[in-house]
Every structure is written in structure tokens, then in C-alpha cells.
Amino acid sequence: MSQADKPGQIVILNGTPRAGKTSIATVIQNTFEGVWMNLGGSQFKKMTPERYQPGIALRPGGERPDLEPLIVTLYQAMYESIASHSRLGINVVVDVWHHDEYSVPREILPKCVQILKDLPVLFVGLRCPIEVIMERRIATWNAGYTDDGSVPKPVMLWQQAVHVPGIYDMEFDTSVISSEACADMIRRRLKEGPPPSAFQRLEDYRCN
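C-alpha cells predicted for Chloramphenicol phosphotransferase CPT family protein (208 residues):
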């Protein structure tokens, strides 16, 4: 099959678990013009064999160094799939949780940036206060605060690590902006500009 004349748009939604990524991705798929495939972390986690779980959803803290080499490969495979869809003219929305707080630095995000080099990528940071994240975790998973009333360490690590280095095209606080409003602002940015530049800036950041 030949490549499309125009690559498909890629929108990457990066944030902690329960930050609202999946909800925004669903709105994009249901309302944006054209075909939008969801090739994000949640989908790839579901496809991962049980003995390798949580796969690319491994939380910060270096808890499973035995899984980390595989996780690097899984991220690369996911991004290669994203790139292939885009080159064939298919739009892609990606919900993901990039961090580098493994047992040793794995530099996964820079590797993924290189895979999507020269493709149209809008990189969106989804931020949400820890108090709201905890409310959503309790509502969804009945997983709340520790016995002494503090935020569990892995949850706090997510909050600290997922937005490093924090270079985005757009950022939203999903505690105050609805999924529909976020999607609408993404739609307008893609239509009206300015052109996305975060992935290029991430590449320059890495080189420096």
C-alpha cells in the first residue's frame, strides 16, 4: 500500500492516571472530522500478556527493573504503530503517561520523539491537582489515602514525574475544564494554529 499524500494528525495526551486522557480521546474520536484511531497506552496495556503486566503502565519508582527493558521496547513498538498509521493518512489520538523514574533512566520520551520525527504531532499536557486525582481514584477504584491520611507514594511520584520536562504545545487543568472543552480547544489549535512545535523543542532540549 502506498503512503498517503498527507500524513494523519497525531495528538498525544500526556498525564497521570485519572487525569482525563481517555475521556478527551473519546470526544476526539467521536466528534473530530475523519478517522481517529486510539493507539494509546491504555489500549496497549490491555494487549499485554498478564505475566508482563502492568507493561507500559509501570508506575514511577523503579519497582520492576526486570520489566524495564521490555517496557522500552513496548513504547517504541507503540510509537512505530502510531507513525505507520500517520504515514498512511490516518489520524491518531494517544493517551499516555510518560515518565523516566525507573530504576535507571530509560529516556523513553526522547526515543519516541525520534520515531515521530517529521510527522505532525500535537503534544498536550493534562494536569490535575492531587486532591482531584485522589477523588477520582476513590470513585473509580476505591483506592484512596493511606491509613495515616497521606497520598500514597506511587500516586505522588506520578504527579511529580509525568510532566518532566514539561514541554508541550498545549496544557489543560482537567479539574476545571471539561473533556469537551479541551477537545474543542485542540480542534481549534489544529485548524487555526500556530503549528505544533513541542516535539521539535523536546528534540532540541535533549540535544542540549
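The beta strands are 10-15, 36-38, 91-96, 121-127, 170-173.
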